[in-house]
Amino acid sequence: RQDSARHTNLLGAITKAAGAGDYGSRDEEARQEFLFRELQSTRPLIPRGLVLDEEAQADLDTFRALAMIPRESLGAYVITMAGQPSDVLAVLLLQRECGIAVPLRVVPLFETIDDLDRCAATMRDALALPLYRAFVASRGHWQEIMLGYSDSNKDGGYLTSSWDL
């Protein structure tokens, strides 16, 4: 379980080191195009000898640790503060880059009022992407999502949060 912003920051650090610009500064369309290209590529994205800041290194180490844990010991990978299709694609790419042979289920957690309002459109857009639709199909055509009450309650208050949920 990790915040989508941490994935964005990690990919930004990786793309800067690889000479591919700053992933984090791209708009959603450019992020999706980049992720789609990278997910289809057979070359590694992460440069050898990559030096990251402490937070990004911890996030990269988490994905690498997941690759070493027996698959039957793991469940889903939850993306907190999810809000865009690129959030789920980023986790697919990071899993692949870190050697997770059988990707974990990717479960976006929609938590803010804005994210709750957009979650149906976000998932519709993600599932419209052939690459992501194929990933979901490989999981029996099931897509889990989570809806967050506590953050939406803090964000919009009890009534708005309850209504949006």
Q: Your description of this structure?
A:
This protein has eight helices and four strands, in the order E-H-H-H-E-H-E-H-H-E-H-H. It is of the alpha/beta class and 165 residues long. It has a four-stranded parallel beta sheet. Helix 7 crosses helix 8. The chain is globular and about 50 Å long. The two termini are 21 Å apart.
Order of helices and strands: EHHHEHEHHEHH
Major sheet characteristics: 4 strands, parallel
Quantity of strands, as a count: 4
Secondary structural class? alpha/beta
Distance between the termini: 21 Å
Report mean pLDDT, rounded to a whole number.
91
Q: What portion of residues belong to β-strands?
A: 5-15%
Query: Largest beta sheet: what is the strand line-up?
Result: 1-2-3-4
Q: What's the number of helices?
A: 8
Outline:
globular
Helix content: 55-70%
> Low-confidence parts lasting 5 or more residues at pLDDT below 50?
none
Give Rg in angstroms: 16 Å
Supply database-style keywords.
4-stranded parallel beta sheet, 165 residues, alpha/beta
Write the layout of secondary structure elements.
Layout: E1 2-3, H1 4-17, H2 28-40, H3 54-68, E2 76-80, H4 85-97, E3 105-110, H5 113-128, H6 130-137, E4 146-147, H7 149-156, H8 158-164
Parallel strand pairs: 1-2, 2-3, 3-4
Helix pairs in contact: 1-3, 1-4, 2-4, 4-5, 7-8
